[in-house]
Structure formats: C-alpha cells, structure tokens
Design goal:
This protein is α/β, with parallel strands linked by helices. It has 2 domains: 84 residues, no CATH class; 131 residues. It is 43% helix and 14% strand. A 5-stranded mixed sheet has the order 6-5-7-4-8, with no helix packed on it. The chain has a two-stranded antiparallel ribbon with strand order 1-9. It has a two-stranded antiparallel ribbon with strand order 2-3. The longest helix has 34 residues.
C-alpha cells in the first residue's frame, strides 16, 4: 500500500461510496488536523457472514468423504466396470446387494442436499444447477432400482454413486472458496471505524455512528485514526493511506 501526502486538491470519489454500516450518495468534507493521538471510542464488532442452511462447507466435506469411501465398492462390484477393465471381484453371499444398498444410502445421504435444493428451485420457479443435479440422480436411482427389481436391464448404481460424490466435491470446494472470499471482505470491512468525530456548528466535536453522517458534514480525523468515509479535505495536512 502507498501513502499519499494529503492536500486541499484531493480528488472527489465516485458519486456513491460504500462505508461500514451506511451508504452516502455524495462525498463529504473531511477536516484533517494535527492534534492529540487518536482517542476514538471502542470499536464495535463486525459480524461474519451467515451460512445458508445445508450449504455449510464442513457438511459438504463430511458428506463427500463418506460418499467417496462407499462409492469405491459400488464401482468395483459393478459388472459393467469389471467388464470394461477386465477384472473380477470376489463373490460371496449378498455381494450382489453391495451396489443397491450402498447406492441407495449414497443417494439419500449425499444426494439429499441436491434433492432439497432442486425442490426449492421448483417451488420458487427459478430452476438452476440444483434442479439439474437432482433430476440426474433421481433418474439414475429409479433406473437402477428398477433393474435390481427386474423391471429393466440397466445398471446405473456406480454412475449414481460417482455423480453424487463428484457433485459433493465440487460444491464443497465452491462453498469453501466463497467462505474464504467473504472472510477477506469481512477483514476489509473491519478496517473501517464504527464511529466518527463530527464537527458541530460551534466548532466542537461529537462522536456519532457512521450512519448518522450526511452529505456536507465536516469530520475531524486525528493522527493515526481511520478515515470514516469518502470526502474532500478542507483544512489541515497529513499523510493518508488511500488504499481503502
């Protein structure tokens, strides 16, 4: 970050400036004066972002790893996969139920978040990725179940398991990236003060929250303090870090 020497010809910011806990439509005048060290009041906390129910990265992580472990035997005991790769797995009593049982568990355990998300998109009439994923896994599940019962001659258990597992991995990575980005934004927001010293008409100062500032207010920024909002210097001189 670069420090710039503040001066009276400070350029005005854009017409709309976003500040912590409030928006201002126009820049304000800011009075920079060399005075005593910063004696602002205590800063308030900055709340983190709320996570959507069912979209917690930790939940996706747990579902992915368990689904991955259960997907391995489903794939290995798939007749289609064995035929393609020319290998065979040991057979024992009940081995033919490995794919149906584990595939059904993966469908409901790992795929439930997609089924719920798809249903929510249907109710809101806003179809999206969740609906597409839910349709794919429902079709694979129904076809595989019908094959197990003997109604069809299709085997999609291994494809169903792989699809759910891959989708869980993708959404886990996506939610983790979103969480990291929101954490960075929260850290930037934490750099802004919660209060400002506004200069009154008689020359005194009063401590007010940022939401109380309005266009035309004159704000006193002491040495070492943070600039509470965009504005124009009307008096005084100081070095200001303009990276924010």
């Amino acid at each position: 970050m670069r420090n710039h020497q503040a001066h009276n010809e400070h350029d005005k910011p854009d017409d709309e400036a976003t500040i912590h806990r409030g928006n201002l439509a126009d820049p304000r005048d800011i009075d920079h004066q060399a005075m005593a060290p910063d004696d602002h009041g205590a800063r308030g906390g900055h709340e983190g972002h709320d996570k959507h129910a069912g979209h917690d990265p930790e939940s996706f992580r747990q579902k992915f790893w368990l689904s991955l472990v259960l997907t391995i035997p489903v794939v290995l005991y798939s007749e289609m996969v064995q035929e393609w790769l020319r290998f065979s797995m040991p057979e024992f009593t009940g081995s033919n139920w490995i794919a149906p049982v584990l595939g059904t568990f993966i469908f409901f355990y790992g795929g439930w978040v997609f089924l719920k998300g798809g249903w929510d998109e249907v109710k809101s009439r806003q179809p999206g990725m969740m609906l597409l994923i839910s349709l794919a896994i429902v079709v694979a599940f129904v076809a595989s179940l019908a094959t197990t019962i003997g109604w069809l001659d299709l085997e999609f258990w291994w494809e169903l398991a792989l699809l759910v597992t891959i989708m869980l991995l993708g959404h886990w990575l996506e939610m983790r990236a979103i969480g990291q980005a929101q954490g960075a934004l929260s850290a930037l927001a934490a750099l802004l003060p919660d209060e400002a010293e506004r200069v009154t008409s008689d020359g005194a100062t009063e401590t007010v929250p940022l939401t109380a500032l309005a266009t035309g207010d004159v704000v006193l920024v002491r040495p070492g303090a943070r600039v509470p909002a965009d504005g124009q210097i009307v008096e005084g001189q100081a070095e200001v870090d303009e990276s924010m």
